[in-house]
Structure formats: structure tokens, C-alpha cells
Amino acid sequence: MSDSSSGRRAAPTAVDRRSFIVGAAAGLGLVAARVPLASAAPAGQAAVFATRVSGEVLRLKLRHTWTTVMSSSDVRETILCRYQRDGLTGLGEGAPIKRYAESAQAALAKLAPAKELLESGDPFRHQALFAELFRRVPGEFALKAALTAALTDWIGQRLGLPLHRYLGLDPDKTPITTMSIGIDTPELTRRKVQEAADFPILKIKVGLDSDETTIAAVRSVTKKPLRVDANEGWKNKEEALRKINWLADQGAELVEQPLPAAMQEDIRWLRGKARIPIFADEACLHPEDIPRLAGAYDGVNVKLDKCGGIWEALRMIHVARAHGLKVMIGCMISSSVAMAAAAQLTPLVDYADLDGALLIANDPYESMTVQKGRIILSDRPGLGLRPRAGTEGIRP
Ligand code: MG
């Protein structure tokens, strides 16, 4: 949408002037409302702001069987939430994470209290609304990521602003995203690396006895810089140090979560000896985790699914910066709905790993694009989502 990034709207006509005033009074102040707010209510009757919050499970088919130290799968389930009001639909997605005892079914079972809260609250007072959401719904961070993204997408659409513009971020400052290569046979590893030809940096899953074979397969077809992710797979600090420095010799520029999250003192020891930076992923879920990680890690991998969404992720980025840590923004395997939300924050981070939608075969939406690895944010309002060509998205 060509005019959406300008933040300007035509002055309201006489017919919707009252709507415009109501919109400004509601705290918008900056731009004319995109859809009349209250003028539909007949004179003498209270305006009705029907809001509907809903959620469903998305079944995503993987292009290749996805294997890491933790699991192997051909299908992943995520939660898709909608926030509907004033004729606009905001979308959000979250991927429940097994390691934290989350599942799509358990998340949907917690939708009712969240729905009641969000349907009765003022979306433009969303900070207080989300604080109450976190209080009422313990755990279920994927659900909260989906709900907060859906409402925030709606706000962006309502204001006619891409979310990154609403947040005051520079879309020219986006980083390159890596393309992840899951653990596989040497032959399939080579094929996946060849399929990732457009990406200048690859993220390779390691953490098993087969690491040397995996890296040999990668190096047989490319000399690109690598980032490696052990997903807590190495068993002790001596093994981890040997592998990390060997990987550094193989062109790895950083390593994620070499040892289990609980082995923080061993990771601190490792950091003093490793030749490449160490990033926390499984050790870093929420803003309050970050202060104790400083000194043991060089950076953190922030994921909306782990922390509960865009606004918590934004808080994590600022807390990490205050502790001198580098920031990566990552993802779970999800559709473009989740990628679009995380992508909005990429102008604030050093590294991005937002390839989750590229690993699936039935992505219903599109938003950001990737050119030679660089993230190009959509200038459409909100999360910038639209049904992928040839699909109708997901019908409510
Ligand atoms: Mg990781």
C-alpha cells in the first residue's frame, strides 16, 4: 500500500467528521481514523464497539523433516489468533514450545479468560491490557504472543501505519537473516545448503556426535560464514570448548546455547576460552532472565514465542542492551504471521534468524520479504500481512 508509510490521511468528510473527532479523543491524535468509530450508532443510542477475539490451531507442513537435538517432526502446530473490531481483523501467531511444556491444545484451552479481557478492554490502552493479560493467564507464552500481535496488528491497521513505523524504527536498518539447516544426512544437508543459495549466512544445527560429518557436508558445497546452534546438546564444558574452537576454524562466527541452560557457570568458563561469541537461547526466555546472563554470554536470542510477544520482546531488547549484550531475534517454525511480528523489531537487533516460514510448505500469508538474506519490511499497515498469492489466507 503506497501511502501507508507516509502516516498521512485525507481530512475526514462531513459524514465521518464525528468519527474522526471520537478517534482523536480516543487517544489517536495523529491520523484520521481508517474506519468510522462511532457514527454507525443511531442518534440517542450508545455506540456499540463489537470486538471479537478468536483462536485456532494452524497445522504447518514442513518442507523437510526438521531435526534438532530436541526433536524431529514433519508437521508443526501453532496458534493463530484474530482481533476483530470496526471491520478490521488483526492477526497474530505463536508457536507453543514443547521444552516449556506448551502445546497448541493447552494454549487454546486458556483462550476464554484472555478473550473476555481483550474483548472488553480499550485496544488503545493496550499496555495496561497486556499487563492484565499476563496476570490472568499464567504461562502459555505462545498464546500471549499470538494475542498481543493480533491486537497490535489491528492498531496498525486502524492507524494506517506499519508497526515498525508506529514504533519509530528505521526500516532501512534491518539485518540479514540466516537460513537454518536442521540436522540430517550428509546428502540432505548438502541439498538444503544448495537450496539456501540466496542466503549469505547459514545457521547450522549441531550438538550431536555427527557434528564433524555435518560441517564437512556443509563445507563440501559452500564457504559461507556459519552460525551454529547446539540447542544444549554438548554434555560438558571440555567437549563444548573443543567443538566451539574447531567450529571457529570452520568459519563459525557465533555459537548458540552450547550447554544446558542450567550449566551457567560452565558457560561462563567457556566464554573465557572460546574464540567466538556465545549466545543464550534456551537460557533466556523473559526480560528478568537477562541480568544474570551478563558475563556468562555475549548475547541473547529473543523470541516472541518464548517471552509472550512483541512488547515483551521489545523490553528484552532494551534490558539486553543495558547489560551490554548483543541481540539476536529468532523464531520457531511458524507461518509468515509470526515472522511479520518479529520482523518489525529487526531494526533494533544485531542478528536475525527469521526463517521459520521458509521451512514450511503451506504458508497462508506473506509480509516481509528476504532479498539476498536482507529483511525487507512491508510498508502495509500493522504487520503488513496479506494472503499469499494463490491462497485466501485462513478464513475465520
Ligand atoms: Mg537456538
Description:
The structure is a single chain. The protein is α/β, with parallel strands linked by helices. The chain has helices at 17-25, 104-109, 111-120, 126-136, 141-159, 163-166, 186-195, 211-219, 237-249, 264-271, 290-293, 304-307, 310-322, 336-343, and strands at 51-67, 72-85, 88-94, 179-181, 202-205, 226-229, 252-256, 278-280, 299-302, 326-329, 351-352, 365-366, 369-371, 374-376, 386-387. The chain has an 8-stranded parallel sheet with strand order 4-5-6-7-8-9-10-11. A 3-stranded antiparallel sheet has the order 1-2-3. The chain has a two-stranded antiparallel sheet with strand order 12-15. A hairpin with a 2-residue loop joins strand 2 and strand 3 (88-94). The longest helix has 19 residues, at 141-159. The protein is globular. The two termini are 24 Å apart. The relative contact order is 0.14. The model is unreliable at 1-47 (pLDDT under 50). Bound molecules: magnesium ion. Magnesium ion binds next to loops.
Concise overview:
This protein is 32% helix and 19% strand. It contains 14 helices and 15 strands.
Ions, cofactors and other ligands present here are: magnesium ion
Give the integer mean of the pLDDT values: 88
Q: Termini separation (Å)?
A: 24 Å
Q: What is the multimeric organization of the chains shown?
A: single chain
Q: How would you sum up the major sheet? A: 8 strands, parallel
Going across the biggest sheet, name each strand in turn.
4-5-6-7-8-9-10-11
Estimated helix fraction: 25-40%
Beta-strand percentage range: 15-25%
H/E element string? HEEEHHHHHEHEHEHEHEHEHHEHEEEEE
Structural class: alpha/beta
What is the molecular shape? globular
| Low-confidence segments | 1-47
Give me the number of helical elements: 14
Query: What is the alpha-carbon Rg in Å?
Result: 22 Å
Number of strands: 15
